[in-house]
């Protein structure tokens, strides 16, 4: 989806509406500025006004956005990008290196927010590519970016030692966060 500001599907809205999360469990709420993330946050925490972090948008695919492989397969710039997406950017888009630098800047912003507000537990709603990049960079055990598989609606909790976080080192613990269904009644 990249930077397309597509709405959530009805199925996603129904699924997100069924979750019960404790608003008291977190002290900072952050979201990508795209509507699908802001809507997700509102469905999970109706009373929260998140800080928006544009740097946590998905990778910008530029002119490749919304096109299929069939439409792109003969495009020279697409072929170059596939050969090395780290340094080659789609026309009017960004390379993986630019994406990583942008996400790093967003992470630094969140760390500043936590420091300014004496926070310890942020809740972040963002996109699959951003999550994969953050896991690649901070998970306790390194795994290549392309090896991470992110399922929509999955949460991850990264636990940092304060000093490790300040230094930009890997977290000390990673776990998938279970989302609980609301009780009937």
UniProtKB/TrEMBL annotation:
It comes from the Bacteria. InterPro entries: His_Pase_superF_clade-1, His_PPase_superfam, PGM_Phosphatase. One of its GO terms (cellular component) is cytoplasm. It holds the Pfam family His_Phos_1. One of its GO terms (molecular function) is phosphatase activity. This is Phosphoglycerate mutase. It comes from Robertmurraya siralis.
């Amino acid at each position: 989806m990249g930077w397309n500001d597509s709405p959530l599907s009805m199925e996603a809205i129904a699924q997100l509406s069924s979750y019960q999360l404790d608003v008291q469990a977190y002290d900072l709420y952050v979201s990508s500025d795209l509507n699908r993330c802001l809507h997700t946050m509102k469905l999970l925490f109706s009373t929260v006004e998140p800080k928006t972090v544009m740097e946590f948008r998905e990778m910008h695919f530029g002119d490749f956005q919304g096109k299929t492989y069939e439409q792109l397969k003969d495009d020279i710039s697409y072929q170059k990008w596939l050969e090395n997406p780290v340094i080659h950017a789609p026309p009017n888009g960004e390379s993986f290196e630019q994406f990583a630098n942008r996400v790093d800047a967003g992470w630094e912003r969140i760390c500043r927010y936590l420091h300014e507000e004496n926070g310890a537990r942020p809740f972040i709603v963002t996109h699959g590519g951003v999550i994969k990049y953050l896991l690649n960079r901070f998970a306790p055990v390194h795994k290549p970016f392309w090896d991470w598989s992110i399922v929509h609606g999955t949460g991850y909790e990264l636990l940092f030692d304060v000093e490790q976080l300040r230094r930009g080192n890997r977290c000390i613990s990673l776990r998938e966060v279970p989302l609980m269904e609301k009780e009937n009644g």
